[in-house]
């Protein structure tokens, strides 16, 4: 049985009856689906469509490269690992390499996929692909014209302090810090 058929035969499956497009932006779109419920009723589901994103845990001389930037939805400045959305047709690994260099000025000699995860499965389809690299060389910063950030290298202790202080609070960076800590403790990601 194919994965699609297996999902459709699950007792909790919600079959889409109608899709109503609401908004189409440059990064996301919003739609409202009417679905049939397992009990025979119907409900609406608000769904954010997103092309997916990449993030990079980049370690340089025992420190993690992070960027600091203002995040309008949170109305605060955040410290995060380098990341960005996938361009149309772009492979996640290529996007990770591109975003790392654009935001930090470093190129990865090698890069390895750690994990892919959904950010908010209750309303969004976005998947973030997390990569790690420990082999970096100088490259060229190339920020988007609407992108303002600074890059720094921080220790694991600093990262943990930033988490306690709320300066790091996004899922991708939290996951990266915990993966880095596991690597320090066990030698493996």
What would your notes on this structure say?
- With 189 residues, this protein is of the alpha+beta class.
- The chain has 2 domains: 3-49, no CATH class; 53-186, Nucleoside Triphosphate Pyrophosphohydrolase (Alpha-Beta Complex), CATH 3.90.79.
- Helices cover 24% and strands 40% of the residues.
- The chain has 4 helices and 12 strands; from the N terminus they run αβββββββαβββββαα.
- It has helices at residues 3-8, 92-104, 156-165, 171-186, and strands at 15-24, 29-36, 42-49, 53-60, 63-71, 76-80, 83-85, 106-108, 112-118, 127-133, 136-138, 150-154.
- The strands form 3 sheets. Strands 4, 5, 6, 7, 9, 10 and 12 form a 7-stranded mixed sheet that branches.
- Helix 3 (156-165) packs antiparallel against helix 4.
- The longest helix has 16 residues, at 171-186.
- The protein is elongated and about 60 Å long.
- Belongs to the Nudix hydrolase family.
- Pfam families: NUDIX.
- Its cofactor is Mg(2+).
- Keywords: Hydrolase.
- Residues 48-176 form the Nudix hydrolase domain.
